[in-house]
Design goal:
Elements: H1 31-37, E1 44-45, H2 46-57, H3 87-93, E2 105-106, H4 112-117, H5 120-127, H6 131-146, H7 152-169
Helix pairs in contact: 5-7, 6-7
This protein binds zinc ion (ZN) (2 copies).
């Protein structure tokens, strides 16, 4: 972007505008691409958000296959690729969970319902459950959405864990009345 020296605000409109924005899913409608395109980058500073979103857009994004070690608490609690710190530590230290700097942090989408709706992985898991368990799970999820949990991004990972648990237990256990206690 062209700016005047010492002037960080763009002072004129972009000269050449692309006719349509770049689409990274034109020839690729795979589950993985859909999942990655739906990732909400949050709990990082503006610059790190742009870096990660750039990776998503141009298919350079590699999701984590398992949680990574947090540079602060040294637990395997980092669930988002390219972040170096877990959300808990980021919140505590009020820093970006990628670069670790105390800049203004992007909190992510303000519509958690939309965020959950978009989660392809979760939807696929839901489909694999029996009708009754699916309803139990939806109740549980709606409760969390209603409470507008600020840690929803992190809770999503927890919800997916629970879904996986339900799926595994689907054949063995018939009663999930204790499932409502799993919201801790
Ligand atoms: Zn941590
Ligand atoms: Zn940052």
């Amino acid at each position: 972007m062209s700016t005047q020296k010492g002037n960080t605000k763009r002072c004129r409109a972009q000269k050449y505008q692309n006719r349509s924005s770049f689409k990274n899913n034109l020839n690729d409608t795979s589950h993985r691409t859909k999942f990655i395109n739906n990732i909400q980058v949050a709990k990082v500073c503006e610059r790190c958000k742009e870096i990660i979103e750039w990776k998503i857009k141009y298919k350079k994004y590699k999701p984590l296959t398992q949680p990574k070690k947090c540079v602060k608490c040294e637990q395997r609690t980092v669930r988002h690729a390219y972040h170096t710190m877990c959300i808990d530590c980021g919140n505590k230290l009020k820093v970006c969970t990628k670069c670790g700097e105390g800049k203004e942090i992007i909190e992510g989408t303000t519509d958690p319902k939309e965020q959950i709706k978009l989660d392809v992985e979760m939807q696929d898991l839901l489909k694999s459950l029996s009708e009754r368990k699916r309803r139990t799970f939806m109740r549980h999820m709606n409760k969390q959405v209603k409470e507008n949990d600020p840690e929803l991004q992190d809770n999503r990972a927890k919800l997916i864990d629970k879904l996986n648990m339900l799926k595994v237990a689907d054949d063995d256990l018939d009663d999930f009345s204790d499932f409502d206690d799993l919201s801790d």
